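User: Predict the complex with N-(5'-phosphopyridoxyl)-D-alanine.
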Amino acid sequence: MPQLAYVDGRIVPLRDARVSVEDRGLQFADSLYEVVAVLNGRLLDWDGHLARLRRGLAELAIDFPMTDAALGIAARHLVAANGQRQALLYLQLGRGAAKRDHVFPKATRASLVMTVRRFDFAARAPQQRSGIKVITQPDLRWGRVDIKTTGLLPNVLAKQAARAAGAFEAWLVTDDGTVREGGSTNAWIVKDGIVITHPMSPHILPGIARATLIRLARDAQIRVEERPFSLAEALAADEALLTSTTAPLLPVVAIDGTPVGTGTPGPMAARLAGLVADEIARQTGWRG
Ligand code: PDD
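Assistant: Here is the predicted structure with N-(5'-phosphopyridoxyl)-D-alanine placed in the model:
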């Protein structure tokens, strides 16, 4: 089956999918994106992704004419047409193409492109058992990373540094030592049975997996604190973990080569991973 993409209302073979060289997403990163997990052919947490996208559109004053229902139908149609049961749906929605000028163009149609790529969620299971390593990098991003724009160069460089160091993720740390989040994941620590993650702010992405984990943990009577934590605190924590659409919950066993806690995945990570797995199965029927 050929891989298919969606470009402004048309489904085309991925290899033929094109946008204009004057697309503002290309020239200014004047565009938003979402990455949605497809499990058993179903979209995980679609409503949360849609709400975040709508918020981003409002923040950037992008006038996008499609209704939520139409967007949902188009996304599900593309997923079905691609025939992948386990995949990542990528949506990119921008102000459109226009003669290059920083200020908003007057009469430009917003653009939407979507792709679906097979993704092996089951490959996360061994990583969940062994845990993963992170390194730290300075947070060089702009002041509104709560808006999920495609302006990801600092994230790209940080994640590349992680890869070069043999680590899974880079935790982005401020000059005063606050851990904000990972290059493409939210960051967590566990201390004395309390699960701690950075509060929602302009300086982190409001992760969908983050919101899910907070809800599931609180429902299970686990104490969650949304507050900034420092790198020193993380190094002295009992456990650490990360969450995202592509890594629903992975234990972090080392930071910059220093073991966290025992240096192996801890009991809280295992408990939380169980809650997340149950929620994924409830929504999609998928179990890794
Ligand atoms: N990244 N923080 C950052 C900087 C991210 O880019 C992401 C997601 C997250 C986690 O958000 P969510 O739980 O909604 O996936 C946190 C996506 C997966 C990406 O860029 O590929």
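The chain has eight helices and 16 strands.
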